[in-house]
Amino acid sequence: KNQVEQSPQSLIILEGKNCTLQCNYTVSPFSNLRWYKQDTGRGPVSLTIMTFSENTKSNGRYTATLDADTKQSSLHITASQLSDSASYICVVSEPDGNYQLIWGAGTKLIIKP
Amino acid sequence: SQTIHQWPATLVQPVGSPLSLECTVEGTSNPNLYWYRQAAGRGLQLLFYSVGIGQISSEVPQNLSASRPQDRQFILSSKKLLLSDSGFYLCAWSPGTTSYNEQFFGPGTRLTVL
After folding, report:
1. How close does chain A come to B45, measured CA to CA in Å?
2. A45–B105 CB contact, under 8 Å
């Protein structure tokens, strides 16, 4: 069964610190892997999308990495800000599917001042 | 630019009552449309998707249904709500032609069935 697992389930860090969120998946083959940010009570917003041939993708202070051999991805947040408090969701797209996205449960990140 | 609207934002309904959630997209044509449900602490679950008017595919058997009466309108319905239907419902759209299949989400509807 295709799955996406994220760790940790939740994380609390101080403002200004860096952090790394992990994503392991069993979807194979896959089309692309994406990270979404979801504020509480809002819809998810895309941060990065990587195809299987890409190793890294940055979006401001967010940097995603992908290792297709080990089926792992990470999202690194640099110099965290209070507005980074949200859930971060890893999503893997199956090939040839315009709709088949396998969603992780997310990591809830809390930034404290 | 494209925008996606969902309403209502919150809804409290008794068990057995009907449901109608509406989603509309502006600024694009022939989008793919999606309904998701998100339970607390869980990943998003795809309920329905549509690639065109009147074309609905269901991913999970349940007492919900979806309709697409117009190109940019997607409706989620139920004739009789169950307690288990409570959750956060999200509508999303994606360009039908992009290979990345990026999906853009609406603000969501928080449904509580009592």
Report:
1. 8
2. yes
Q: What is the pLDDT of residues A45-95, one digit of tens each?
A: 999 999 888 999 999 999 999 998 999 999 999 999 999 999 999 999 877
Sheet holding B73-78, edge to edge: B3-7, B19-26, B73-78, B64-70
Q: Which of A42, A44, A93 sits opposite B101 (nearest CB)?
A: A93
Would you call A42 and B108 a contact, using CB atoms and an 8 Å cutoff?
A: yes
CA distance A19 to chain B (A): 21
Question: Nearest 5°: CA angle at B58, between B52 and B59?
Answer: 125
SS (H, E, C) B2-70: CEEEEECCEEEECCCCCEEEEEEEECCCCCEEEEEEECCCCCEEEEEEEEECCEEEECCCCCEEEEEEE
How far apart are the C-alpha atoms of A110 and A90, rounded to whole Å? 17
Question: Which residue has tokens 């509480």?
Answer: A40
From chain A, the residues in CB contact with B109 under 8 A are: none
